[in-house]
Design a protein that fits this description.
Elements lengths: L10 E6 L3 E6 L4 E5 L4 H5 L2 H5 L2 E3 L4 E4 L4 E4 H6 L7 H6 L16
Antiparallel strand pairs: 1-2, 2-3, 4-5, 5-6
Length: 106
Amino acid sequence: MPTVLRVKVQATQVWFTADMICVRLDDGREVSVPLVWYPRLAKATKPQLANWELIAGGTGIHWEEIDEDILVEALVLGLRSNESASFSKKYPLNQKDSLTANEPEA
């Protein structure tokens, strides 16, 4: 039977670079992963990215407007979103000023 690795960590802070999500953990470590690992975050606007909240005592991060939740444990373990790129293309977020949105047709 395989051993399941459990990581008990809590986030205390979240911030973004141009292409990364960065999280400070309660033990002092900082974890950064590419935004492209999370299609909803990659398509979100800067204001939407900044509108996060810690949930479940800091074990998760939630973005209400873009309907995204990420477990801090998943970030530490390097796990990507299981939302496929095809889902993201089929059901795009409705955002006019997204960093990756196309300009409207004239």
